[in-house]
Amino acid sequence: MMNETIVATPWWARLAVWATVPAAGAGLGWVVHQLPEWLLRLPWAPMRGPLRAVDRLPEPGATIGALLLGAIAGLVLAALIDQESLTVRISGTEVTLTRPGKTRTVPRGEVAVAYREGDQLVLLGRTGRELAREPSHLAPARLAPAFGTAWAEQDPYAGSYRRWVPDLPDVPAEAAALFAARQQALDRGDGDDARELRDELARLGFVARDEKKRQHFRRTDGQDRL
Fold first, then answer.
1. Tell me, what DSSP letter sits at residue 151?
2. What is the pLDDT of residues 177-197, one digit of tens each?
3. What pLDDT does residue 48 have?
4. What pLDDT was estimated at residue 18?
5. Rounded Cα gap, residues 215 and 219, in angstroms
6. Where are the domains of the chain?
7. β partners of residue 206
8. How many whole angstroms separate alpha carbon 106 and alpha carbon 125?
9. Per DSSP, what are the bridge partners of residue 135?
10. Which residues contact 75 (CB under 8 A, 6 or more apart)?
């Protein structure tokens, strides 16, 4: 595509994750497998009965099993890391954010501000509405030239957020229900549900930002345009 700027996680970095993390997991599995033998050498080690039972597991099956379990755990972790491998494509008409299993496209003319917030790339519209928020480890030094004058070092509305708590008088019932449901999703670690509820809140004119498992928010209606 002509006049398209692409900023992506390098292929070698993704390959390195898939190669090294499962290998590290297998190594950790071997270490865990050796722990009972090492601990039994200590006269003060607790739970000696269970440790002896584990140490007497038949070989080489026990070692192979530990290595396989470690490698499988490493593969799961590598997949989670790879989910944040974001590719940003910017053309004259649209901004496309792609990561494994998900693509989001925003009209280029609607993007007024782009910035990094922690490990996330955030796009804002001219009224402060949040257009997109995706996990990203792409360096600001690579993103800034791609977005040009729309790039910002921080959220221009950073001072407008306040803590969400139940029964705030100026939060409509529909939004309050979404915030409450989203708090439950955050508490149980359901990131997908929390993202969906964030999008629903955005349609009502609310932008949510999380600090640990606490929600902070601002309203987009009535704010100054960028």
1. B
2. 999 999 999 999 998 899 999
3. 63
4. 81
5. 13
6. 10-82, 88-219
7. 219
8. 10
9. 120
10. 21, 22, 25
* pLDDT-based confidence at residue 82 (cuts at 50, 70, 90): confident
Amino acid, single-letter form, for residue 177: A
> Taking a C-beta distance cutoff of 8 angstroms, is the pair 83, 17 a contact?
no
In the numeric block, the tokens 């928010």 are attached to 217
The closest alpha carbon to 136, from 110, 152, 117, belongs to 117
| pLDDT tens, position by position, 13-61 | 778 878 888 889 888 877 877 776 766 666 666 666 665 665 566 777 7
Residue 194 φ then ψ, to 5°? -60, -40
Q: What is the pLDDT of residue 59?
A: 73
- Report residue 213 as tokens: 């498992």
Residue tagged 């190669």 (tokens)? 19
**Tokens for 128?**
């402060």
**Closest to 6 (Cα-Cα) out of 68, 124, 64, 87:** 87
pTM of the entire predicted model: 0.71
Measured between alpha carbons, how far apart are the two ends of the chain, in Å? 30
